Amino acid sequence: MMKRALPALATAGAVALLLAGCSGSSAPASDGPAEITFWHGYTEADGKVLDQIVADFNASQQKYKITTETKTWAVIDDTLLPALSSKEGPQIVAMPAERMPVYADRGAFADLSDFYASSDSNTADLVPQAVDMVKVGGTPYGVPTGFVPLAMFYNKSLFSAAGITEAPTTWDAWVADAKKLTVDENGDGTPEQYGVAIPDHATVANGLWPSLLLSGGGQIVDGDKAVIDSPENAKTIQYWTDAITKDKISPTGLDGIAADQLFSSGKAAMHVGGPWMASIAKDNNIDYGIAAIPAGPAEQAASAIGVAMGVTESADDAQRAGAEAFFSYFFQKDVATKWSLASGWPPLRTDIPLSDVSSNPVVAALSEIAPTGRALLPGVVNSTDVISDIDELTQKAVAGGNVDELLATAQTKIQQAIE
Amino acid sequence: MTTHAPSAPPRRRGAYRPPAPIGGRGPLRHSPRRRLTVVAFLTPAMVILTVFVAWPMISALRLSFTDASGFGREKFVGFENYVRVFTDEDILRAMGNTALYALLFTPIAIALALGFALLLNNPLLPLRGVFRTALFTPFIVSLAVAAFAWSYLLDPQIGLLNYWLRGLGIQLGNVLQDPTLAMPAVVLVAVWKSFGFYMVIFLAGLQDIPTSLYEAARVDGASAGQRFRSITFPMLGNTMGFVVIVALIAALQAFDQIYVMTGGGPYGSTQTIVMEIYQSGFRKLELGFASALSYVLLLITLVLSLTQFLFFSRREKDAA
Amino acid sequence: MTALAASPAVTASEAPSRRVSPQRRRRRLVSALLLVVVAASTLALMLPILIIVFTAFKPVAEVNAYPPTLVPGAWTLDNFTRIFTELPFARLIANSFVFAGGVTAFALVFDSLAAYALARLDFRGNKILLIAIIASLMIPFQATLIPIYQLVSDLGWVNSYAGLIAPRAADAFGIFFLRQFFLSLPRDLDNAARIDGAGELRIFGSIVLPNAVPALLTLGIFTFVNNWNDLLWPLVFTTDAEMGTVTSGLTLLTGPGGIIPQGVMMAGSLIALLPLAILFLMIQRRFVESVGTSGLK
């Protein structure tokens, strides 16, 4: 009988420990500033500036004290769920914007409608597309910390070697220039230098093809309907597939990271990338230029890379008030300007003039093209599946599949994903 | 329930049984001293396993009947998740892929391990210690790092393998983005990393086989192949059974290198069940569904392993 | 192919002096053939390891260069300095030792005790317990991660060594593995001891365990290596950067845009490999010795 008692004993012991653990959980300190933990993924020099902004906020008042923890974005994504599930999570967390809807939908983030409505929140002048990123079903669940459209980076030395003086501004010019910049000296069928690096899956911020589709006049999701199967999208995909496979202006099978590397190693003359390409290109001694993604037949649109932060459900009232106070502080004009210059991303307020950010040429250049920015899949909860459906579409198209069939399949799958 | 004790002393009919606590059948099995002993041996491990393995498994089972994300609201949904496991296209595809992966990985890894174990067991081979260490090294590399190294080797632009093979006139192309080559590639990485460990287990098993048996066979004129078939293979039955189950379980749970090298692509051709579990749980925050899928995987693995176990136990009994 | 141990004593004593030569010549030929085959295949299999070693010493430009090189053209220690400046790497290595070492120590003790009970002691539910233990191997860690984390957090052990080690202090694989091994050991010695009245713990400690050294060493290496290389658990469990392990620390190396600095990553991996390699080299000799003395039955 002892043996059967054993599991019971062990479980009883475990339960006892659990209860002991539970009762030991801390009641919030009744005096002293409310302690708030803030997770973010700014790991480079920009992270240090953000930490400084937080420190300044802490110094500016007595009621709240924020402590930051820096991890990579991927690690935050992997560790946030367990932390929240055991109430060990941060009260403020920043994450890539397309990850926000799924967390918001599951109740991880607090509804910030009242915050936005209040007059001293400093949110009235925020870039509207940036705010679009944090809304699910019309309700805002966070605030933007970064919003920048993908830009075209080009290698000035390779340009001048090919006799091209300006970055292209339309698709046709883009392809023409790329053809001139694709060089296969030894004629073995594999160019040593490509005109452009166009990934066909896992693109930079998953934004390259959405940019092209939008510029071609098509959309992916409209409200709660998948609308990817449209004549405009078919033309766009066919246009670019032909350019890649027939004119060979880019290798096939690239992903976003490989495309980054191709450009930074000087083997591709043009590349659609994020702001970090500036410092990477500089580290690799590439004389680079920044331009807007060339305009398509319908418009000049660039999918935006967005980062947002929100208040988690593990925050109590005091902590939530503190978080909102921090957000207001963060959006003050001077702080917003400082953050823009440090992060290398355009300012989040529309009323900050270009002259204020001219000290950082990358920021100035990106701010100029900021109007081309469009949020990626705003409000789509299951962005994971939609993005992989888009990837499958583009990858198979570039590999030679039938574009119309692929679009029909993608439409069905995306519709399923957003239901 | 009695357990078969292979070397229990034979029962003498009607004889007086001494009251010593011999490991074997009999009512004295349940003496308090005996039970205390059993408990004492089992307790430390059982406490850990009950608290940190059994209880979370029960938790996960409960979660599998809900739509929980791990935090916030959760709602009981009955068997909905399980139905979805068997009707969702992506999940069914993942099951097919996992089966393919297991079918490729298990025999190849075991054959390679056994082959090298036999070679390294041969006293005619010089520098055996060196080779044993070298062949074991892939095992001590973490799977993620191994995946990085292999991805780098297979990179279509700057990869060494592609470069060398191109020199020989073979165009490897973009292996990890090729729907037909991606799966063999991820299997290869796992085989490369794991065979060293299985090899060491086989070596231990081989060295347990008395050389006198081989001598007798030699004297009888048996060839190398015959010696392998009638001595080595049967005597390895216990070891083989263990390695097969362990390899199978590892194959059915394939995740790390796929996550690093292909992310489940291209077109989901390397998406395995555990990849789906991870993505459902951590990316789509569908912990309830992830738990249900885990339990289906557990059941499949259990059935397959029990079959293997029974198969090899019978062989072991025949061999002994 | 499987030319197994030929006993020199038998043939040498039987053979007349004329037949020794061809015999020895054939053995030398087989030796040479084996050497070539095994050496070639080993070298091929070592290629990825060589990649890790050499890439760690390559400057960034050469890592991405075309045509690719195996051996670095320019050797550099940059990657290594970066590893130690960008991460608290020394602390991470120490944490890895505590984690992997702690788990291995506890697991070897707890697992062998339980395995002994399963292999040698008859009790009701022995087979069922075994199946339950094996079954627990079949659920992937990703599924039980959240409940385990919640449990450990409720115990108040988040970010502590106790919490990191406890869930692994006994493991189903080890119990299964040792149970199989104990089963293969002959019972004569322990039965004799039992008849003499020795207690089970004594039998376990002085008879069974000494004969199980190769299995214990194998399991020890397996457990240590796997926990040293484990990523998901230390990553999720330690939110404090200083408490992480080497593997979880390396994930923090991802640069902006998801670009991984290959050279630095390889340097870190190489350093992470070294303790394991040294450990195996040390254990390996004992492994051979102990098998040599106890193996032939």
TrEMBL record, chain C:
Subcellular location: Cell membrane
Keyword Metal-binding: no
TM region positions: 29-57, 92-116, 128-149, 161-182, 203-225, 259-283
Location (main, coarse): membrane
Domain annotation ABC transmembrane type-1: ranges: 93-283
Lipid bilayer topology: Multi-pass membrane protein
InterPro entries registered for this protein in UniProt: MetI-like, MetI-like_sf
Source organism superkingdom: Bacteria
Name of protein: Carbohydrate ABC transporter permease
Species in which this protein is naturally found: Microbacterium algihabitans
